[in-house]
């Protein structure tokens, strides 16, 4: 068993390195003693691993906050510019981009509105490339680009970045991962890998790692981005499924006599709590108004707006009750326009959730996102950092040093 | 890192032992060369591990099937009597019990009908104890009893075997695990631990390990046992949730104007596809007729029975479509009375499932159970064997040698 045991030792070393990196990435600057306590390793082993990370430029040791008495202790701090992700959140009517550094710091952020119609995959890719240049121009020269992450409101094949179906964009079988990498390669001379993910999955990851659900192991993130999607974290990891297509809770049929959905089915949850339903229910024109406009109208006493919010809250609560029964999660995060609804509809919503089975209902909290509208954007960056943590030296070897044009 | 590495070596040994045990438990008699190929270990390591299992009495080496030429090769075979589980499936109107040996062989099986009303936890425990005696009388003297497994149609706290809620039995916060162990202890002088599980969870485990979903990683088992429950296996393991209460898909609200459910909510899936709804829809009296009676009536041309089955198939398909969208599983197994429906309603059912999102729909198969009505019973035994595999010597040390009264 010697060979096995040698392999295991190297695995143990990499595992410990990844744990330290993750701790710094999520928790920020940390003293050596806290790293010793966190990992359960001895001081000298932690010293060796930290030195390895410092040699790679990923961390520096610096004076930390002074304790109650005595000299300030040294803390190990992540260097944001040492490894950055370019992240995009492709929304139905908006593109948001950011450069996010190791440690989670947003170094630059941009957003741009577009019209839903005519926004083809190729249009999206063009806008991402031009936004990438604007973002790179806004960060210090010399940052190391380790990958690109893209969130899409649709069903994604994680193995090859193929967008199988994005009903609200009208995209079918678009090889987005390949397209983005190739376009960036042409423009920047070279490009690291691109990771494509479902917007709700990425939102769930971000809220779980550093948002409103930090510290919880079982989390559902509902994306409210025209349509409604679900990202599901179970026991700290994204839910497994046959093809990675699960979590489409917006297409849970809840009223078989309801309206026809963009997916082709009838009475999907999305047809009741999607943006268009809420806006139209308030007598406003979909595509030119947002849920927040309905909320404002209701605040001013508009009875049709109030009724539309009450209906949406009713269906939102009923569907959340279903998810409580099915998943027994600790936290449900209401993203996008669903978060805008929360303060307005909490009464009827919690009343409906109250119909779910007691033991599960008692364990759940329903909250607004901790990362505002950026859950998916930050999650897209986290998808890139997921490749850094297990193999930092490999990821840095494949990185590209960015200089503005 | 020496200490860590020593701990790791022992872990590796136990891990390999557990893999061999599991392979024999699930796959039956296996040649040493197949064990070498399966584990990736060398021949001598496999020899040492097999000798350890033989010393403990768990396996024997015997002449296997003769190959194409030459002498018959030796195979390692599980010894069923060396470690047995007593398993119970507590149904709403029936108690089923079995002694299941290591390797999955059913050594004895009993069942007994009871009335739903008045079937309290204490009544159930009394019947289990008396059935345990009948079962023990039917197996060879000297079998080693390693534990008791019980499946219940309700929500179970796995940590302490507390049945939080079993709506169709009217049980609330019944400490069933404790009650069963104590009652068996009084009667048998001593008792190993009892494992309580949700009936659908156990059904999912059994169908995944040795039933219709063997070989699939993402599986949903729907229990049709008066009510409707769900057991969900993701990436080969039971779904994780905050308290272990998830999977209650029968209480997914699908028609907010529907009938009041036993859970207190309205329009739950169970109110449309539960046994009582189907039987009543056919004009028969619930509690005295079964779904199979409706199927027989429809076969004889009864139009009301046909309509009831068609309605049930419609709702069953719509709900399965929801599960396909939410979980993207490879296999959905229709247990209990839902399996009886399948041949009758497959047309409308697959039509409705056809409304789910294409990439997920293309990956799913909907099937009847491979273990007939015994999925939960076998799953209850598997719950016991789950404690044998990682620590066979410990489990045997805690076992009790059974002799009939």
Low-confidence stretches of chain A: none
| Oligomeric state as shown | homodimer
Q: Which structural category fits the helices and strands of chain A?
A: alpha+beta
Net shape of chain A = globular
* Domain module count of chain A: 3
The CATH H-level homologous superfamily of the largest domain in chain A? ATPase, nucleotide binding domain
Most extensive interface: pair and counts? A-B, 54 and 54 residues
Largest sheet data of chain A: 6 strands, mixed
Integer average pLDDT of chain A: 93
Span between termini of chain A: 55 Å
How many distinct helices of chain A? 14
Beta-strand content bin of chain A: 15-25%
Helix content of chain A: 40-55%
The name of the CATH topology of the largest domain in chain A is: Nucleotidyltransferase, domain 5
The CATH architecture of the largest domain in chain A is: 2-Layer Sandwich
Descriptive tags:
homodimer, Nucleotidyltransferase, domain 5, 14 helices, 3 domains, 405 residues, six-stranded mixed beta sheet, Arc Repressor Mutant, subunit A
Could you explain how this protein is built, in words?
2 copies of one chain form a homodimer. By secondary structure, chain A is an alpha+beta fold. Helices cover 43% and strands 21% of the residues of chain A. Chain A has 14 helices and 17 strands. In chain A, strands 4, 5, 6, 7, 11 and 17 form a 6-stranded mixed sheet that branches. A 5-stranded mixed sheet of chain A has the order 14-13-12-15-16. A 3-stranded antiparallel sheet of chain A has the order 1-3-2. The mean pLDDT of chain A is 93. Chains A and B meet through α1, α10 and α12 of A and α1, α10 and α12 of B.
